[in-house]
Design goal:
InterPro entries: SAM-dependent_MTases_sf (IPR029063)
CATH class of one domain: Alpha Beta
Distance between the termini: 45 Å
CATH superfamily of one domain: Vaccinia Virus protein VP39
Structural class: alpha/beta
Helix content: 25-40%
GO molecular function, one term: methyltransferase activity
Protein name: SAM-dependent methyltransferase
Keywords: Methyltransferase, Transferase
Organism: Streptomyces adustus
CATH architecture of one domain: 3-Layer(aba) Sandwich
């Protein structure tokens, strides 16, 4: 597959870097996505996801969270307008030909390459669970993007429907924060020395209120990032997209080098890489 151009909104004198988006999507699916499994499980357990659940997953990526909900008997719809490559992998996971359990249980899965409005399912009951598991707190404007997604999704959900939002925990409880400072510093040397913006305790509540939702409980979940080796760690973290601006401002080799150096303190004697992290989730309700 021909690599696709990834354009960044940063001043950059050199050529726009080329990224193999299909390879990156595979790295996300095979390496990085599983790091958030404890977050998915905690939310599903708390909300008793099961056969009566009609779930709308915003930014569903390659579909692991949807797959976990479907394995509990939920009917799932995933929306992801930003990565057709990840969505293609989600289709392989969730279509009956790829997953026999789906066909046996009659669980319904649907994937939409568009906005939440495109996922409105006329003629059927409203969604009774909405999830937005992509954590905010690392990229400028990510909370604004989440507000827009939630605002567009709310009309498709029933009154009082739970909506799950996620965010990074405090930097002092997230070892990965120190690694992400590499991305901030390389992307903007004059302003990025402090790394990602500091996560505030009420960030998720603020997003919920801006989207017209009512906060209704929260929790924290340990989500350690564990990798088989240094190469897997680098590929997994790059697949998040959090280092794209750094690559655009410098080059891929520089980012790979400095990312590897930043990961070195977390490399164990057996070659594995381990970074403890805490993520926070909020459950809000539609009006």
């Amino acid at each position: 597959m021909t690599p696709t151009l990834v354009r960044q909104h940063l001043p950059h004198a050199g050529p726009v870097p080329r990224v193999d988006l299909a390879a990156r999507a595979r790295d996300w699916s095979e390496i990085q996505e599983r790091m958030l499994v404890p977050l998915y499980e905690a939310a599903y357990e708390r909300l008793e996801v099961g056969p009566g659940t009609r779930l709308l997953g915003l930014g569903c990526g390659s579909g692991l969270a949807l797959l976990m909900a479907a394995s509990r008997g939920a009917s799932v719809t995933g929306v992801d307008p930003s990565s057709p490559e990840r969505l293609a992998l989600a289709r392989r996971r969730l279509l009956p030909a790829a997953w026999d359990t789906h066909a046996r249980t009659g669980t319904r899965a649907r994937l939409v390459a568009g906005s939440p409005k495109d996922a409105a399912d006329a003629g059927t009951a409203p969604y009774n669970l909405v999830t937005a598991f992509e954590p905010i707190g690392c990229l400028a404007g990510d909370s604004d993007g989440l507000v827009r997604l939630l605002t567009a999704a709310t009309p498709s959900a029933g009154r009082g429907t739970p909506v799950v939002l996620a965010g990074w925990g405090p930097p002092e409880r997230c070892a990965t924060s120190s690694v992400l400072r590499v991305a901030a510093r390389l992307a903007d040397p004059l302003r990025g020395t402090d790394g990602p913006r500091r996560t505030r305790r009420d960030d998720l509540e603020e997003v919920a209120q801006r989207a017209g939702l009512r906060p209704d409980g929260s929790g924290r979940v340990a989500c350690p990032f564990g990798y088989a080796d240094m190469d897997s760690a680098v590929r997994g973290l790059l697949s998040t997209g959090l280092f794209d601006a750094a690559v655009a401002a410098t080059d891929q080799a520089q980012v790979d080098k400095e990312l590897t150096e930043a990961l070195h303190p977390y490399r164990r004697a057996d070659g594995t890489v381990w970074m403890p992290n805490v993520f926070r989730y909020l459950i809000a309700r539609t009006p």
